[in-house]
């Protein structure tokens, strides 16, 4: 409380009504140069890892298959997620950025939430891909044609960014009369609602319905697809074929866990962890943003034989 009141006192003379103070690791300002090193390393791994996955899929003709097209969508989403926050996170740690304008804040929250919904949609599509490949292999190529994959990609982008537009635009017309201190190193829709003095009922209910019909519905459909896959695999007589079928799903299951566990943890923390240090909230927010983009290239490089062998070949060419 003391720290919050002290920051509020500092904010009022230097900030105008259309800007907000970004929150770093409060109390650790002297260690920011050291804290920036692991964050810079993580962002470099996020950008290089996802770019490498995209490069491998683009340049290797044998990877021009539905499964890897969807993986490319996931890598592109993760790459954009990293790009959407690195300037504010590293800007705070390097002392370049302290506040953010309302318009920039709204734009950043639009991309963060849109990309989160997009990642959920891509994971659902990848679950459908595994379902068709295992449960209906003879019709796999006829169901997931290139034109159909392109249409699925357009539908994912439309679903992710179209439906979040009304509440995000609405943020522009709110009156913000509370202390303009955000809870994280980046902007989120719920953070701006907390600072608004206008009627936020539309945004609150709309956001809740949106989460239910995107993140929650996607999670239920992913679970259901794996129930169908499990039921189909268990009737396979050969133990070797069962193992091979399950092995093709391991990478996707890991990606789903990597995406949903941070979201659930952050939600639980916002609901039940109000007594925790602000540093813990900031750290969990960064884990929510950075953990999936960091881990997905590693998961698919290790668990997917085609990606792994192509990357090893790429590194060997660079070495020689």
UniProtKB/TrEMBL annotation:
Recorded coiled-coil stretches: none
Domain G-protein coupled receptors family 1 profile: 49-300
Family matches, as PROSITE patterns: G_PROTEIN_RECEP_F1_1 (PS00237), G_PROTEIN_RECEP_F1_2 (PS50262)
Membrane topology reported for the UniProt record: Multi-pass membrane protein
InterPro entries (UniProt xref): GPCR_Rhodpsn (IPR000276), GPCR_Rhodpsn_7TM (IPR017452), Olfact_rcpt (IPR000725), OR51/52/56-like (IPR050402)
Keywords: Cell membrane, G-protein coupled receptor, Membrane, Olfaction, Receptor, Sensory transduction, Transducer, Transmembrane, Transmembrane helix
GO cellular component, as recorded: plasma membrane
GO biological process, one term: cellular response to lipid
Transmembrane intervals: 7-28, 34-57, 69-97, 109-128, 149-169, 205-229, 249-268, 280-302
Organism domain of life: Eukaryota
GO molecular function, a single term: olfactory receptor activity
Pfam family, one: 7tm_4
Subcellular location: Cell membrane; Membrane
Job description of the protein: Putative odorant or sperm cell receptor.
Family: Belongs to the G-protein coupled receptor 1 family.
Protein name: Olfactory receptor
Lineage: Eukaryota, Metazoa, Chordata, Craniata, Vertebrata
Underlying gene: LOC115526287
